[in-house]
């Protein structure tokens, strides 16, 4: 029996999942959970003998799909890979560190380490305030962002870390079980991996960074297939959900205010970028969501985007 099993969640991933599957080690069980892709993703996966395909009739979201994949495996460790990740080295060292969670070195297609992404700190309230206000983009070297994105981290040395990325995340199956899996309330995507790492750390589990395990990561493949209106609403909704779940009420309200304040200029920018009045509608929804959340202390699930609610017949 293999010690490690691999879970890959796909959505419109025909162009990338083949390379990902070809890079998976021989003899390691692989489960692909497809979230109602309309392209040739499922046909591409079917070309690989021994790969188990779970074909969801609708988009269940990333967290639910990962949980489905873990349930389908019977291995001590589970490695979650994005379909745009290609393994470049053996993966066994990930489970030889004594850690409960682990990740390796993510590089881009040119072989350059994806600093700021392959390892991050868990976000604090001020982190998310500066993120939604755009300060981290305009002034990336600010102290809060440097800590959050671990810009001073040496990617060539092993270390304990706070937030391995969901794109390349190994965990012990019993840790996943004790934590109740990934939280499916983060639907359809974003912050579910951050929440999982936060809950693991709070429970006393340790995450390790293992630089000798390397993978190439294209980045943003499935997300780029989403309608921009959906992307904006769901990103803010998941961010607010994380803040409401892990921050004190005053800090959560501060994040909500920052979301409200940032939405007006983003709507104006969106109008010129996408040449559409829908930018005002989208950010109006974000403002309402943040305002309602600030008052109630609980984030409401936004309306389902038509792109994600389609069924596959």
Describe the structure.
The structure is a single chain. This protein is an alpha/beta fold. The protein folds into 2 domains: 4-119 and 155-217, Alpha-Beta Complex (Spore Coat Polysaccharide Biosynthesis Protein SpsA, Chain A); 226-309, no CATH class. It has helices at 17-23, 41-46, 62-71, 125-132, 135-138, 143-148, 173-178, 192-202, 228-246, 249-274, 278-296, 306-309; strands at 4-10, 30-35, 52-56, 77-81, 85-87, 101-107, 159-161, 168-172, 207-217. Strands 1, 2, 3, 4, 5, 6, 7, 8 and 9 form a 9-stranded mixed sheet that branches. Helix 9 runs antiparallel to helix 10. The chain is globular and about 50 Å long. The model is unreliable at 309-313 (pLDDT under 50).
What is the H/E string? Answer: EHEHEHEEEHHHEEHHEHHHH
User: What is the CATH fold-level name of the largest domain?
Assistant: Spore Coat Polysaccharide Biosynthesis Protein SpsA, Chain A
Would you identify the CATH architecture of the largest domain? Alpha-Beta Complex
Low-confidence stretches: 309-313
* Strand residue percentage: 15-25%
Query: What class, by secondary structure content?
Result: alpha/beta
Q: How far is it from the N-terminal to the C-terminal residue, by CA?
A: 36 Å
Count of the domains: 2
Any idea of the CATH class of the largest domain? Alpha Beta
Q: How much is the radius of gyration in Å?
A: 19 Å
Q: What is the helix content?
A: 40-55%
């Amino acid at each position: 029996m293999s010690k490690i099993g691999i879970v890959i969640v796909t959505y419109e991933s025909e162009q990338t999942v083949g390379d990902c599957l070809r890079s998976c080690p021989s003899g390691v069980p692989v489960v692909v959970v497809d979230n109602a892709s309309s392209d040739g993703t499922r046909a591409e996966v079917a070309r690989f003998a021994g790969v188990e395909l779970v074909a969801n009739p609708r988009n269940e979201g990333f967290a639910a799909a990962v949980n489905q994949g873990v349930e389908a495996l019977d291995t001590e460790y589970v490695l979650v890979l994005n379909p745009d990740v290609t393994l470049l080295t053996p993966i066994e060292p990930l489970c030889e560190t004594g850690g409960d969670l682990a990740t390796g070195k993510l590089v881009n297609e040119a072989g350059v380490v994806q600093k700021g992404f392959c390892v991050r700190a868990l976000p604090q309230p001020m982190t998310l305030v500066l993120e939604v206000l755009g300060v981290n983009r305009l002034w990336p070297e600010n102290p809060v962002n440097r800590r959050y994105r671990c810009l001073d981290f040496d990617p060539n040395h092993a270390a304990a870390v706070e937030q391995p990325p969901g794109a390349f995340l190994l965990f012990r199956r019993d840790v996943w079980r004790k934590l109740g899996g990934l939280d499916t309330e983060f639907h359809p995507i974003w912050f579910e991996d951050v929440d999982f790492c936060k809950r693991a750390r709070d429970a006393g589990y340790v995450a390790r960074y293992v630089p000798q395990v390397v993978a190439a990561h294209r980045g943003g493949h499935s997300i780029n297939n989403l309608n921009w209106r959906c992307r904006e609403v769901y990103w803010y909704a998941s961010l607010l959900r994380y803040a409401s779940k892990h921050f004190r009420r005053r800090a959560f309200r501060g994040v909500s205010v920052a979301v409200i304040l940032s939405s007006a200029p983003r709507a104006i920018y969106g109008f010129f970028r996408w040449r559409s009045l829908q930018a005002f509608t989208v950010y109006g929804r974000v403002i309402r969501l943040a305002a309602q959340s600030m008052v109630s202390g609980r984030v409401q699930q936004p309306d389902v985007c038509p792109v994600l609610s389609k069924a596959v017949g």
